[in-house]
Structure formats: structure tokens, C-alpha cells
């Protein structure tokens, strides 16, 4: 049986926060089932802003000097499945994660002659995770963590990734640790990628 390669992208700056705890549960579970796991901490990356030159669309690579965006893109190309875990910032994903995806769009999707998206990762699966300080169920109803999940789904859909599970946790200001039920949900979600 072939070893699955799972890439986990952690977009939270909190080292012991809810996202970090969820990522740890998923990492341990995937490794326990024989997967090879790479964890990227977005806050530690050196990624320069996109300059909107659009040359990557024509050339198929970014013309800016190499930085960590190309390394992450290679990990995405090499993985069988991906987990993206991001806290909600103003009903969306953190700017650092958006910056990363802006820089690697050319390696995530192509365009047809008429400008329609062509996914470059068709057949791969993903799990999406978000947290919000807004209490449950308002985090979903008010499009807080749900807004971040929506943005991630769009990125993954246009790239060809099939979302097999989403996890949204609200009220993280007061609920700073995972319950056993939440940890179990993380483990179950990552098993869908194996």
C-alpha cells in the first residue's frame, strides 16, 4: 500500500491555540495510520506580496525572486491530500494565508482560452478547519468561521480539491482547549484523507 502524503497548512499565529490543537490531533492521527505529514506554519513563511504583473499566468511560474511560496506550492503539488486550518479574521481567512494563495495561483489553477478556470489538482481531497471567537452558532449564522470556510472552499474548488470535511469551532475566547468530542471530530476528518 502506498504511503499517503498529507500537507497541513496552519494559518494561525497562536502556538497553543485551538487551531494548533486541532492540527496536532490531525497530524498524530494521520501519522498513526502511516501517512507522511508535512505541517506548514504560515506565520513563519517569508512570502512577498503579489505585484499583479500577471506574468505567472502566461509563463506558468512566478517571476518574482524565490521565497517560501514556491516551496509551499511544491508541497501542494506533491501531496495526495491537504488540511487548511485558519482562524476567522473579519469573516474571512487571515491576510497571510490569502497572500500565500495569491502568490501561487498559477500552480493551483490554469485558464482555458476563454478564461475559464482549469483545476490543476483534480482528484485530491481536503479538510477545512476554522475557528472564531464569536460563540456557536453565531459563528456560523453571522458568517464568521463560516466566511473563512467559504473562502477556503472557493480556493480549493477552483484548484480541483474536493472538500471531504469541514470543522468550525466558535466561542474560542472562552473555550481555549479542545473537548474530547472536538478532538475526535478532528481525527475522524483527517481519516477521510487516508
Describe what this molecule looks like in 3D.
- The chain has helices spanning 18-32, 55-59, 68-78, 95-103, 105-108, 138-141, 145-159, 180-191, and strands spanning 5-10, 36-41, 81-87, 109-111, 117-119, 125-131, 162-169.
- With 194 residues, it is an alpha/beta fold.
- The chain is built from 8 helices and 7 strands.
- It is 39% helix and 21% strand.
- The mean pLDDT is 95.
- α1 crosses α8 (180-191).
- A hairpin with a 5-residue loop joins β4 (109-111) and β5.
- The strands form 2 sheets. A 5-stranded parallel β-sheet has the order 2-1-3-6-7, with helices on both faces. It has a two-stranded antiparallel ribbon with strand order 4-5.
Sequence stretches where pLDDT stays below 50 over 5 or more residues: none
- Listing every helix as H and every strand as E from the N terminus to the C terminus, the arrangement reads EHEHHEHHEEEHHEH
Large-scale geometry: globular
Number of strands: 7
Share of β-strand residues: 15-25%
Cα(first) to Cα(last) distance is: 11 Å
Radius of gyration: 16 Å
The neighbouring-strand order within the major sheet is: 2-1-3-6-7
Structure class = alpha/beta
**Number of H/I helices:** 8
| Biggest pleated sheet | 5 strands, parallel
Mean pLDDT: 95
Helix residue percentage: 25-40%
